Amino acid sequence: MIAHDRTRLTTRLGQGQYHHTPVMLPEAMAFLRPERGGVYFDCTCGEGGHSEAILKASLNSKTVCMDLDLNMLMVAKERFKEFEGRTWFVHTNFADIDKAASLANVANSDGILMDLGISMAHLKGEKRGITFMEDQPLDMRLDVNRGEPAHSILLRIKFEELASAISEYGEERFAGKIARAIINAREKEPINTTGQLVKIISSVVPRSGRINPATRTFQALRILVNQELESLEEAIPKCLDMLGWDGTLVVISYHSLEDRIVKNAFKNAADIGFEILTKKPLCPSEEEIEANPASRSAKMRAIRRKGG
Ligand SMILES: C[S@@+](CC[C@H](N)C(=O)[O-])C[C@H]1O[C@@H](n2cnc3c(N)ncnc32)[C@H](O)[C@@H]1O
Fold first, then answer.
1. pTM metric for this prediction
2. Residue 66, ligand 1, Cβ within 6 A
3. CB 216, CB 167: distance < 8 Å
């Protein structure tokens, strides 16, 4: 179901080693209950940390592994050789989960996981311009075959739209200043690399503490480029539709805007036969945050279709 295109693979680790540590894994499995067997959708497979736990929980569990990033699916496919026959790999946006289900010939699901955002592989292994830690081409697309790269958006976007994206998606209080600096800079030359963008941001945002001044703007542009909030909004009702009796949807979000979308969608579903399993979102334990600081902003919500 996926093309064998390895040309875009960048930094690979040794066999059995992965960039990403799955977040809130025991909590996710407690809600999904893959030990019962059944068909699970991992909407954001990444390198496959959560899917692996699903597949290992029972010989009767199967996963439909989806990701926008073909490279991630290639890594997961290799990782899951031993589970052949119990896995499908679909290179798609999770907003198209209904199409992925028909490709895999699956009518409904026992559990669905959405672990939003990006993988550590995007920060450490890939060279898409998602990280500001290295000078890279300013692309930021998770699916490099679709959509418009960040450098192209920055060439044409209007000041107001840019400032509001940086403010809303990045929760950046210097959004106006940064947007103005970007617009001024692009009049001199196109902004094609992360290095150029970091320089522009640093020229107008004072450094405070350990946080890099570019952090919030990079997050905002990534959300804008990949239309992350729109996809989430479209996907959740489709995921709920896909759930069979007693099936559970678990969403791990890393940003207050994402969490708000999940919270509201779950609230609406509670009126139509679903039970919210998390009155308040769960957060990672202190031990997990210490072992994996990337987990610190995670919030998990779960909802289950009431049994028939
Ligand atoms: C946090 S990582 C998942 C990590 C994975 N759970 C693991 O433990 O290895 C999120 C993944 O979701 C993918 N992704 C983000 N938005 C997506 C979307 N709209 N549709 C499909 N995949 C998406 C990213 O490419 C990334 O690989």
1. 0.94
2. yes
3. no
Which residue type occupies 271?
D
Domain ranges, ordered by start, for the chain:
25-121+228-305, 127-226
Question: Could you tell which of 17, 40, 68 is best to mutate to test the pocket of ligand 1, judged by most ligand atoms within 8 Å of the CB?
Answer: 68
Tell me the CA–centroid distance for residue 120 and ligand 1, in Å: 10
Task: Extract the tokens encoding 298.
Answer: 């995670």
Selection from 204, 168, 165, 208 nearest residue 184 by Cα = 204
pLDDT in tens, 222-244: 999 999 999 999 999 999 999 99
* Domain 25-121+228-305, CATH class in plain words: alpha beta
> Of the ranges 12-26, 195-209, 245-259, 274-288, which one carries the lowest mean pLDDT score?
12-26
Contact 68 CB / ligand 1 (< 6 Å):
yes
Residue bearing the CA closest to ligand 1, atom 20: 93
Instruction: Using alpha carbons, select from 120, 119, 115 the residue that is nearest to residue 252.
Output: 115
Q: Which CATH class is domain 127-226?
A: mainly alpha
Q: How far is the CA of 31 from the centre of ligand 1 (A)?
A: 19
Residue with CA nearest ligand 1 atom 16: 117
Pocket lining: 47 vs ligand 1, CB cutoff 6 Å? yes
Half-sphere exposure of 48 (CA within 13 A, CB side): 26
46 Cα nearest atom in ligand 1: 27
Range with the lowest mean pLDDT among 1-15, 126-140, 280-294? 1-15
Q: What is the pLDDT of residue 98?
A: 96
Angle between helices 215-226 and 228-242 (to 10 degrees): 60
Model confidence pLDDT, tens digit, residues 28-76:
999 999 999 999 999 999 999 999 999 999 999 999 999 999 999 999 9
